[in-house]
Amino acid sequence: QLLEEGQLKRSRELKLLVRGGVPESIRGRVWLALSGADSLRAKYPRNYYQELVSCPSFKERTVATGEIEKDLLRTFPGHRMFREEEGISALRRILVAYSLHNTEVGYCQSLNLLAALLLLFLDEVEAFWV
User: Fold this and answer.
1) Which end of the chain, N or C, is less packed with Cβ atoms under 10 Å?
2) What average pLDDT does range 114-127 have in this prediction?
3) Mean of the pLDDT values across residues 69-96?
């Protein structure tokens, strides 16, 4: 109920509930709320993610994109989502977009695993913002 009302605030009660396990059906929405992704997203233009994935820099070959390409097929190879082109492409877009968004970090080992896990519960744009 608090999640639907947008009033999910950090508290001792919430901590106990989360430690008890967040149901899979609402896990993505809880992650969005507790991570601050909604607040962060509000600071950027509405189509910021789409602008990143369609900008000319997105297709450039960089050190980051080289590392991303190496890691794509190593990411949860047993999961059907990442054995299909649609899942791999979504993961690639998130990782390259993040490397453009946060040039100080760019891409680092294990970001692929975090982004892939988020894609299991969130859509592509939401996963980028978390």
Assistant:
1) N
2) 95
3) 96
